[in-house]
């Protein structure tokens, strides 16, 4: 199965909305890798939650700043990962189409969020320690200045 490329690169330089001396943010991101079947991460879960909220792949994609085609391809990929579809699509007609999560889809989202919460709780102290080691934090702030 073809997977979308991961976006990698440098973070943008600080802007007026985010001053250079702002406290750095550290976050844990969970991605469940199912090998050749595909993977499930925060983007696909967010798309599924928005489909559930809006009842529409198009509206969910727009809210995520992606084209309908990109959103539809991701839904197709999500549905191929599991034995049963997670997103049910209704084709357009006079009233237009729509989409909703299946029972399995709702269960997968719930379990992903549970995994994410448990991992965040388990890693909280270590993430705080890592964040404290970033530039711009407390005593380490003066270390690089002469």
SSE blueprint:
Layout: E1 32-33, E2 39-40, H1 42-54, H2 57-63, H3 68-81, E3 87-90, E4 98-101, H4 103-132, H5 140-143
Antiparallel strand pairs: 1-2, 3-4
Helix pairs in contact: 1-2, 2-3
Quick summary:
The chain has helices spanning 42-54, 57-63, 68-81, 103-132, 140-143, and strands at 32-33, 39-40, 87-90, 98-101. The chain has 146 residues and is mostly helical.
What does this structure look like?
The chain is mainly α and 146 residues long. The protein has a single domain, classed as Arc Repressor Mutant, subunit A (Orthogonal Bundle), CATH 1.10.10.10. The chain is 47% helix and 8% strand. The protein has helices spanning 42-54, 57-63, 68-81, 103-132, 140-143, and strands at residues 32-33, 39-40, 87-90, 98-101. The strands form two sheets. A two-stranded antiparallel sheet has the order 1-2. Strand 1 (32-33) and strand 2 form a beta hairpin. The longest helix is centred in the last third of the chain and has 30 residues, at 103-132. It is elongated, with a radius of gyration of 20 Å.
């Amino acid at each position: 199965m073809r997977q979308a490329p991961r976006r990698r690169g440098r973070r943008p330089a600080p802007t007026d909305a985010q001053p250079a001396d702002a406290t750095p943010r550290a976050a844990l991101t969970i991605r469940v890798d199912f090998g050749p079947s595909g993977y499930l991460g925060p983007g696909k879960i967010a798309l599924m939650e928005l489909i559930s909220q809006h009842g529409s792949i198009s509206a969910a994609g727009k809210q995520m700043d992606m084209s309908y085609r990109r959103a539809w391809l991701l839904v197709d990929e999500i549905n191929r990962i599991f034995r049963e579809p997670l997103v049910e699509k209704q084709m357009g007609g006079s009233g237009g189409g729509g989409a909703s999560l299946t029972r399995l889809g709702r269960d997968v989202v719930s379990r992903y969020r549970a995994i994410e919460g448990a991992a965040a709780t388990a890693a909280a102290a270590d993430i705080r320690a890592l964040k404290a080691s970033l530039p711009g934090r407390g005593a380490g702030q003066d270390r690089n200045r002469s």
